[in-house]
Design a protein that fits this description.
Order of helices and strands: HHHHHHHHHHEEE
Oligomer: single chain
Number of strands: 3
Strand content: under 5%
Structural class: mainly alpha
Shape: globular
Number of helices: 10
Distance between the termini: 60 Å
Strand order of the largest sheet: 1-3-2
Radius of gyration: 24 Å
Length: 289
């Protein structure tokens, strides 16, 4: 097959346009879709949000639109409370972050720049105000449906920690810093987020977590809670010698029970590595999901 001279020029131009569009260094995405082999008929719904979409992967799904209206309500209430007439300064800040934020997503989605910025604005403000309302009750609306029904709060905690349901943390942090005042020293994004997920912190106090957490490397809220869960493990590993441990396969719970082993909850729940086997009893920390 031959390419005529005019067609060759077009191909050359197209290739160079693609090459020029590549970043100087490969981007490192941090937010992924769940692999298709994990999404079978039995487990497919486990990875999807129940009532709240965050980020672009589940944006626009019809059954999640009720919460979408509440996002607008939260934004409107914030502007009224701060006596602001426009979202202009927040939109401009997000426009500057749009390309960087888009690169955080490993998989494709169908949102143009305007829709992507609007998504970040609504989702970011909703999460920030949700965390504030959770800690500071006087800020809530009396008729806020989220805090009138514990089931909704439980669903939100589930949805906000889904792998596919994330915003880059630097987006949240930027919006939070733009809305932060000096009136309340406890008005800190990570502190409020950890309080919102308090039941998932393995009985670790927020202050204890903050002193041990590397804040600058947080990718998103799911990553934040993952880092909290891994703190005891990381400390346990750091205290080990350089010698390789001998790993052996362990039977399933069913197999261990058939062998006569009993299971009990560990007395302390602040360390997932605190697993002890004494006198035929395996004590394991409780993990709340």
């Amino acid at each position: 097959m031959q390419i005529v001279e005019g067609s060759a020029d077009t191909v050359i131009i197209d290739i160079h346009r693609q090459l020029d569009g590549l970043p100087s260094t490969p981007s490192k995405p941090t937010i992924y879709r769940v692999d298709s082999h994990l999404r079978n008929d039995k487990w497919n719904d486990v990875y999807d949000p129940e009532i709240l979409s965050v980020g672009p992967y589940h944006y626009g799904i019809l059954r999640l639109q009720n919460m979408q209206q509440l996002k607008f309500r939260y934004l409107k209430r914030y502007l009224k409370h701060r006596n602001e007439q426009s979202v202009e300064r927040y939109v401009l800040a997000l426009v500057h972050m749009e390309k960087r934020a888009r690169k955080c997503y490993a998989d494709s989605f169908d949102l143009d720049e305007n829709a992507f910025v609007m998504m970040m604005l609504l989702d970011g403000f909703f999460l920030i105000e949700l965390f504030r309302y959770s800690s500071f009750k006087h800020l809530r609306d009396a008729d806020d449906p989220i805090f009138r029904h514990e089931r909704i709060l439980s669903q939100l905690r589930h949805d906000i920690l889904l792998l596919e349901n994330q915003l880059p943390f630097f987006v949240l942090n930027q919006l939070f810093n733009m809305t932060k005042t000096d009136e309340n020293p406890e008005d800190d994004l990570i502190t409020l987020a950890l309080r919102f997920f308090d039941g998932m912190l393995l009985n670790l106090s927020v202050s204890r977590v903050l002193t041990r957490l590397h804040v600058k490397i947080i990718d998103h809220l799911c990553g934040l809670i993952h880092d909290v869960w891994c703190l005891p493990f990381a400390e346990a590993i750091s205290h080990k010698s350089n010698e390789r441990d001998k790993w052996e396969n362990i039977n399933s719970i069913t197999g261990l029970r058939e062998a006569g082993i009993k299971f009990k909850r560990a007395k302390e729940d602040d360390n997932l590595m605190d697993i002890k086997f004494v006198n035929g009893v395996l004590r394991i920390p409780q993990l709340i999901i």
